[in-house]
Amino acid sequence: MAPHLTPAAPRAVDAERVLDAAASIVAQTGLRGLTLRDLAKALGKSTTVIVNLFGSRAGLVSALASAGLEQDRAFHERFFEDLGELEPSRDALLAVLGRYLRRRALPSAAFVRIWEELVVGGDPDMAPTLRAWEAMRLAAWERFLARDPKLRPMAEVATTYLVIEQFYAGALADRADYEAIAAEGLGGLIDRAFGLEDAPATTTEAYVARMTIPEAPSDEGPNGAIRLKLLDIAADQILAGGLPAVTNRSVCQAAGVSTSTIAYHWSDMRRFQIDAIWRCVFRDMPQQLDYRRPTPTTSPTLDSWSALMAATARASAKPGEGFYVRYARLIAHICLEARRDPELQALAMILRGPEGGGTYVGRAEVWPPQFTLSRRAATRFALWIKGQALIASALGEAPTPAQMVEGARRLVAQRPR
């Protein structure tokens, strides 16, 4: 016998169908591509139907976020149930972490794309939902890692580390070089949790030795000032709305120049966008973190280092926004776009391959002397602090120096006293 439908049931079915269609659009084009008009067209309905269900686009996005959270909660429950009674040994945990990233990179995991879009979106109204989302992820990993009591403290740093690695995995999961480098980084994270010494980062070092580090754009040469002005405008637009926000018209109008100006200075729009991305990376980088510039010859104290790191991860009104907040948001935007445009995968890989390399090169001047910064430790701390910065920004929170110290102690070996 068919189940009895209450008067409210057809409306619920309509809402579910609308949310499924909206999630599909977000996965393909991002939140900025979600319009009531296009959604209605995809459904074969009028926008009135959507407005009657959700009130407005903001109401639709809020409902989409709530549905995505519940779908992700179900994902985590199924994921860890499928592991049965598996003990989190070193090799088993490496397999579990890799499997987790691959599953969340699948096109079918549209709820993950919703989470990613909300994290980089910067909408304060979404903070309560994202806070619940983060609590759910942490609790799920804590329950699994509690099977080995000494691993439970790893849950907090691991879930933060996975924030940025998940963006990379979504863009690069089909690349063998990424899979090898990601596995090396995850292996280092696990070894640290088990109290093991770091092995050499052979795969990462080999990749870095082969790559060409891009030059930072400058104002040198003819018309250098106008070129840098255009790049600064584009960099701000990328940080605010992702790569699709940068158009010839949007940049030239903001600069007050002719729309032919970019074409005069760059061979094509993509080349201009990529130069703007590197402007984002190198602009305003603290001197202590910039391997290209001389740094002090004395090591920082733990207090001065932790204050610097907390400032780089702090979200505040521009221009006070922390470097790692901007950098993490940039990486996330590029990785989201690389899912839709394979030409950007090479750029995403250039960002992922040498993660942590800058601070590793200058480790004697950047890190307090009580820490021993191996290459693997530099990678995992770099991914962790970017994840910390991105989530804190999305939640409207400010990481503290004490949190930086705690993260460092969990991720980086300390010299014997």
TrEMBL record:
InterPro entries per UniProt: Homeodomain-like_sf (IPR009057), HTH-type_TetR-like_transc_reg (IPR050109), HTH_TetR (IPR001647)
Entry keyword annotation includes Aminoacyl-tRNA synthetase: no
Keywords, ordered alphabetically: DNA-binding, Transcription, Transcription regulation
Alphabetical list of Gene3D superfamilies matching this protein: Tetracycline Repressor, domain 2 (1.10.357.10)
GO MF term (any one): transcription cis-regulatory region binding
PROSITE patterns, A to Z: HTH_TETR_2 (PS50977)
Keyword Transcription in annotation: yes
Taxonomy, superkingdom: Bacteria
Domain HTH tetR-type: start-end pairs: 12-72
DNA-binding span(s): 35-54
Listed PANTHER family: HTH-TYPE TRANSCRIPTIONAL REGULATOR BETI, HTH-TYPE TRANSCRIPTIONAL REGULATOR RUTR
Protein name per Swiss-Prot or TrEMBL: TetR family transcriptional regulator
Organism: Caulobacter radicis
Upper lineage: Bacteria, Pseudomonadati, Pseudomonadota, Alphaproteobacteria, Caulobacterales
